Amino acid sequence: MRARNFSRRLLMVSSLLLLTACGGLPTVNLSSTDRALLKTVSIKPEMTMPAEIMFQGRAQAAGAAFGVLGALATQGMANEPKEQIPRVMKNNNIDLPTILRAEMQKAIQSPSLRVVAPGTRADAELSLQVTLYGYAQKNGLSNTVYPTINVSATMKSPDGRTIWQQNDYITALNGENNVGYEYEQFLEKPERLRETMTKVSAMVSRLLAANLNQAR
After folding, report:
1. Which of 42, 43, 50, 85 could join 122 via S-S bond, C-beta 3.0 to 4.6 A?
2. Mean pLDDT of successive 10-residue segments in the chain (216 residues)?
3. Are 198 and 103 in contact (CB under 8 A)?
């Protein structure tokens, strides 16, 4: 029991440190004037992505338990998942930017805010930046990993002003984040990567949309 509690605390700290390290853009709240004018929005096709995927498996959690030296000693164990998962996603046409844009469109579309095609004249353009994505454990004693993501959303008016900006994230410890697999299971059935990336994209999109709707 003590080992399980320690590993869970370690994972919580690791998740928070990872998300903090990724940072985020300054928050900009929607003004009452811009709120009244915002009726249509387009989502920018291009999306900034991190250089590499994040992977926090059992070996990395065990290494972290022994401090910096342990973490460094086990870092190489994450190289295979970090390199293999993006390769499998690419080979199976699993594109996170495409998935995230689709989920964000579904989340923000409403009777009072219409999403129009990119390049179409709109009251604002929304751009998305993924500062972290990957997989991590809920439990340091488990081989099952769950998707995690950190997204910054920026909405600009036609004259280039930033009228709304927000950051949000989903970690493996989020209660709704309940679909996970072992690393080898992703390789056996790549569609599990699409399933988990779609789920976590939908979750973070709903959080961002909730903030935007509250602001509106």
Report:
1. 42
2. 49 52 78 93 96 85 50 58 96 98 97 94 97 92 94 97 97 95 97 98 97 74
3. yes
pLDDT at 23: 61
- 88: helix, strand or coil: helix
Which residues partner with 10 through β-bridges? none
CA 215 to chain CA mean position, Å: 22
CA 173 to chain centre: 13
Give bridge partners of residue 55 from the DSSP assignment: 135
Q: Give the global pTM.
A: 0.84
Q: Is 176 left (phi over 0), alpha (psi -120 to 50) or beta?
A: alpha
184: exposed, middle or buried (C-beta count within 10 Å: 0-12, 13-18, 19+)?
exposed
With both helix axes pointing from N to C terminus, report the angle between 79-91 and 191-215 in degrees, rounded to the nearest 10.
Answer: 90
Closest by Cα among 109, 139, 14 to 71 = 14
Q: Which residue has the tokens 């709707």?
A: 213
Residue 213, pLDDT score? 84
Per the rule left: phi > 0, alpha: psi between -120 and 50, beta: everything else, 160 is left
